[in-house]
Amino acid sequence: MKQPQPSGSLPASQDPEFPNIVKLAALERQVFDFLGYQWAPILANFLHIIIVILGLFGTIQYRPRYIVVYAIWTAVWVTWNIFIICFYLEVGGLSKDSELLTFNISRHQSWWSENGPGCVRKEASMSGIRGLDNHSYISVIGCALEYRYIEVMHSSFQILIALVGFVYACYVVSVFTEEEDSCKYLSTDPLAKVLVTFISLSDVCLSGLSCHQTSFHPCLCVLWH
Fold first, then answer.
1. In the 8-state DSSP scheme, what is residue 3?
2. What does the alpha-carbon distance between residue 54 and residue 47 come to, in Å, rounded to a whole number?
3. Are 122 and 137 contacting, i.e. CB atoms less than 8 angstroms apart?
4. What is the mean pLDDT of residues 96-116?
5. CB-CB contact of 40 with 110 (8 Å)
6. DSSP of 134-169, one letter per residue?
7. Stated pTM of the model
8. In angstroms, rounded to a whole number, what is the distance separating the alpha carbons of residues 184 and 187?
9. How many CA within 13 A on the CB side of residue 69?
Protein backbone atom coordinates (compact mmCIF):
# COMPACT_ATOMS: atom_id res chain seq x y z
CA MET A 1 0.00 0.00 0.00
CA LYS A 2 1.38 3.42 -0.95
CA GLN A 3 2.00 5.54 2.10
CA PRO A 4 0.36 8.99 2.16
CA GLN A 5 2.61 12.00 1.82
CA PRO A 6 2.76 14.62 4.56
CA SER A 7 0.68 17.74 4.02
CA GLY A 8 2.94 20.00 6.05
CA SER A 9 6.61 20.77 5.62
CA LEU A 10 9.13 19.82 8.25
CA PRO A 11 12.06 22.15 7.72
CA ALA A 12 14.35 20.58 10.28
CA SER A 13 14.04 17.09 8.88
CA GLN A 14 14.33 18.12 5.24
CA ASP A 15 16.92 20.95 5.56
CA PRO A 16 19.43 20.18 8.33
CA GLU A 17 21.98 22.75 7.10
CA PHE A 18 21.10 25.51 9.56
CA PRO A 19 21.24 23.27 12.69
CA ASN A 20 24.64 22.06 11.49
CA ILE A 21 25.84 25.64 11.15
CA VAL A 22 24.70 26.40 14.71
CA LYS A 23 26.54 23.36 16.07
CA LEU A 24 29.73 24.10 14.16
CA ALA A 25 29.70 27.74 15.27
CA ALA A 26 29.27 26.70 18.92
CA LEU A 27 32.05 24.10 18.71
CA GLU A 28 34.42 26.54 17.00
CA ARG A 29 33.84 29.09 19.76
CA GLN A 30 34.41 26.44 22.42
CA VAL A 31 37.73 25.31 20.88
CA PHE A 32 39.28 28.78 20.88
CA ASP A 33 38.03 29.55 24.40
CA PHE A 34 39.61 26.30 25.58
CA LEU A 35 42.90 27.29 23.97
CA GLY A 36 42.79 30.59 25.83
CA TYR A 37 41.71 29.07 29.18
CA GLN A 38 38.68 31.37 29.29
CA TRP A 39 36.72 29.45 31.90
CA ALA A 40 33.55 31.55 32.01
CA PRO A 41 33.04 31.41 28.23
CA ILE A 42 33.88 27.69 28.29
CA LEU A 43 31.02 27.01 30.70
CA ALA A 44 28.65 29.24 28.74
CA ASN A 45 29.58 27.53 25.47
CA PHE A 46 29.11 24.09 27.02
CA LEU A 47 25.60 25.00 28.16
CA HIS A 48 24.88 26.50 24.75
CA ILE A 49 25.93 23.28 22.99
CA ILE A 50 23.64 21.25 25.25
CA ILE A 51 20.65 23.52 24.51
CA VAL A 52 21.38 23.41 20.76
CA ILE A 53 21.41 19.60 20.85
CA LEU A 54 18.17 19.65 22.87
CA GLY A 55 16.53 21.93 20.34
CA LEU A 56 17.72 19.75 17.45
CA PHE A 57 16.39 16.66 19.21
CA GLY A 58 13.03 18.37 19.71
CA THR A 59 12.90 19.31 16.04
CA ILE A 60 13.68 15.81 14.79
CA GLN A 61 11.54 13.98 17.34
CA TYR A 62 8.55 16.35 17.16
CA ARG A 63 8.93 17.85 20.65
CA PRO A 64 7.87 21.52 20.38
CA ARG A 65 8.59 22.14 24.07
CA TYR A 66 12.28 21.46 23.56
CA ILE A 67 12.31 23.89 20.66
CA VAL A 68 10.67 26.52 22.87
CA VAL A 69 13.44 25.99 25.44
CA TYR A 70 16.00 26.65 22.71
CA ALA A 71 14.13 29.78 21.60
CA ILE A 72 14.16 31.12 25.17
CA TRP A 73 17.84 30.28 25.52
CA THR A 74 18.68 32.34 22.43
CA ALA A 75 17.69 35.46 24.39
CA VAL A 76 20.12 34.49 27.17
CA TRP A 77 22.82 33.68 24.62
CA VAL A 78 22.41 37.05 22.90
CA THR A 79 22.68 38.81 26.28
CA TRP A 80 25.87 36.90 27.12
CA ASN A 81 27.50 37.77 23.81
CA ILE A 82 26.57 41.42 24.22
CA PHE A 83 28.38 41.29 27.57
CA ILE A 84 31.45 39.76 25.87
CA ILE A 85 31.42 42.58 23.32
CA CYS A 86 31.19 45.18 26.09
CA PHE A 87 34.00 43.40 27.96
CA TYR A 88 36.48 43.54 25.09
CA LEU A 89 35.48 47.06 24.09
CA GLU A 90 35.82 48.11 27.75
CA VAL A 91 32.33 49.56 27.99
CA GLY A 92 30.94 50.61 31.35
CA GLY A 93 34.13 50.27 33.34
CA LEU A 94 34.93 46.78 32.10
CA SER A 95 38.57 46.00 31.26
CA LYS A 96 39.75 43.44 28.72
CA ASP A 97 42.90 43.00 30.82
CA SER A 98 40.98 41.88 33.90
CA GLU A 99 40.74 38.24 35.01
CA LEU A 100 36.94 38.22 35.01
CA LEU A 101 36.60 35.59 32.28
CA THR A 102 39.08 33.28 34.02
CA PHE A 103 37.35 33.56 37.42
CA ASN A 104 40.46 35.34 38.78
CA ILE A 105 42.39 32.05 38.90
CA SER A 106 44.81 32.85 36.06
CA ARG A 107 46.08 35.72 33.96
CA HIS A 108 45.37 34.07 30.63
CA GLN A 109 43.89 36.16 27.86
CA SER A 110 42.17 35.33 24.63
CA TRP A 111 44.03 32.82 22.44
CA TRP A 112 43.89 35.41 19.67
CA SER A 113 46.05 37.83 21.69
CA GLU A 114 49.14 35.84 20.67
CA ASN A 115 47.90 33.95 17.64
CA GLY A 116 45.94 36.50 15.70
CA PRO A 117 46.50 37.15 11.98
CA GLY A 118 50.03 38.43 11.42
CA CYS A 119 51.04 38.21 15.09
CA VAL A 120 54.67 37.35 15.86
CA ARG A 121 55.35 36.01 19.36
CA LYS A 122 58.78 36.78 20.80
CA GLU A 123 60.30 35.67 24.09
CA ALA A 124 63.10 37.76 25.60
CA SER A 125 65.25 36.28 28.38
CA MET A 126 65.25 38.18 31.66
CA SER A 127 68.26 36.42 33.17
CA GLY A 128 69.83 39.76 34.13
CA ILE A 129 67.12 40.44 36.67
CA ARG A 130 67.50 38.78 40.07
CA GLY A 131 64.81 36.26 40.85
CA LEU A 132 63.71 35.95 37.22
CA ASP A 133 66.52 33.77 35.86
CA ASN A 134 64.12 31.11 34.66
CA HIS A 135 61.50 33.49 33.31
CA SER A 136 61.08 35.18 29.96
CA TYR A 137 59.23 38.24 28.74
CA ILE A 138 56.74 37.58 25.96
CA SER A 139 55.92 40.26 23.43
CA VAL A 140 53.53 40.10 20.51
CA ILE A 141 54.08 42.35 17.52
CA GLY A 142 52.87 42.75 13.96
CA CYS A 143 49.22 41.82 14.55
CA ALA A 144 47.08 42.81 11.59
CA LEU A 145 44.01 42.99 13.82
CA GLU A 146 43.84 43.49 17.57
CA TYR A 147 42.55 40.42 19.36
CA ARG A 148 39.67 42.19 21.05
CA TYR A 149 38.14 43.00 17.66
CA ILE A 150 38.38 39.34 16.68
CA GLU A 151 36.48 38.41 19.86
CA VAL A 152 33.91 41.12 19.10
CA MET A 153 33.40 39.69 15.61
CA HIS A 154 33.03 36.19 17.09
CA SER A 155 30.34 37.38 19.50
CA SER A 156 28.60 39.41 16.80
CA PHE A 157 28.44 36.32 14.60
CA GLN A 158 27.00 34.32 17.51
CA ILE A 159 24.33 36.98 18.02
CA LEU A 160 23.41 36.84 14.34
CA ILE A 161 23.18 33.04 14.42
CA ALA A 162 21.08 33.19 17.60
CA LEU A 163 18.61 35.65 16.07
CA VAL A 164 18.25 33.51 12.96
CA GLY A 165 17.90 30.45 15.20
CA PHE A 166 15.11 32.13 17.15
CA VAL A 167 13.17 32.83 13.95
CA TYR A 168 13.86 29.29 12.73
CA ALA A 169 12.65 27.78 16.02
CA CYS A 170 9.46 29.87 15.96
CA TYR A 171 8.79 28.72 12.41
CA VAL A 172 9.23 25.04 13.27
CA VAL A 173 6.97 25.35 16.33
CA SER A 174 4.31 27.09 14.24
CA VAL A 175 4.45 24.30 11.63
CA PHE A 176 4.06 21.62 14.30
CA THR A 177 1.25 23.55 16.01
CA GLU A 178 -0.67 23.97 12.77
CA GLU A 179 -0.41 20.24 12.10
CA GLU A 180 -1.67 19.42 15.57
CA ASP A 181 -4.57 21.86 15.24
CA SER A 182 -5.55 20.44 11.85
CA CYS A 183 -5.60 16.92 13.31
CA LYS A 184 -7.53 17.58 16.53
CA TYR A 185 -10.73 16.16 15.11
CA LEU A 186 -8.97 12.87 14.45
CA SER A 187 -8.07 12.41 18.11
CA THR A 188 -11.74 11.57 18.89
CA ASP A 189 -12.38 9.61 15.73
CA PRO A 190 -12.25 5.86 16.46
CA LEU A 191 -11.82 5.04 12.77
CA ALA A 192 -8.63 7.14 12.68
CA LYS A 193 -7.24 5.24 15.66
CA VAL A 194 -8.00 1.97 13.91
CA LEU A 195 -6.16 3.28 10.85
CA VAL A 196 -3.11 4.04 12.95
CA THR A 197 -3.27 0.56 14.43
CA PHE A 198 -3.22 -1.18 11.06
CA ILE A 199 -0.57 1.01 9.38
CA SER A 200 2.87 -0.57 9.60
CA LEU A 201 4.27 1.88 12.15
CA SER A 202 6.31 -0.99 13.50
CA ASP A 203 8.69 -0.40 10.58
CA VAL A 204 9.41 3.03 12.01
CA CYS A 205 10.41 1.55 15.36
CA LEU A 206 12.59 -1.10 13.73
CA SER A 207 14.34 1.44 11.51
CA GLY A 208 15.12 3.73 14.44
CA LEU A 209 13.53 6.73 12.69
CA SER A 210 11.01 9.11 14.16
CA CYS A 211 7.56 9.26 12.68
CA HIS A 212 8.24 12.63 11.09
CA GLN A 213 11.34 11.34 9.33
CA THR A 214 9.13 9.00 7.33
CA SER A 215 6.48 9.67 4.70
CA PHE A 216 3.56 9.08 7.06
CA HIS A 217 0.91 11.76 7.15
CA PRO A 218 1.57 14.17 10.06
CA CYS A 219 -1.93 13.52 11.45
CA LEU A 220 -0.98 9.88 11.97
CA CYS A 221 2.17 10.98 13.75
CA VAL A 222 0.13 13.16 16.09
CA LEU A 223 -2.11 10.23 16.94
CA TRP A 224 0.85 7.90 17.26
CA HIS A 225 2.38 10.12 19.95
1. P
2. 11
3. no
4. 87
5. no
6. T-EEEEEE--SS-HHHHHHHHHHHHHHHHHHHHHHH
7. 0.71
8. 5
9. 16
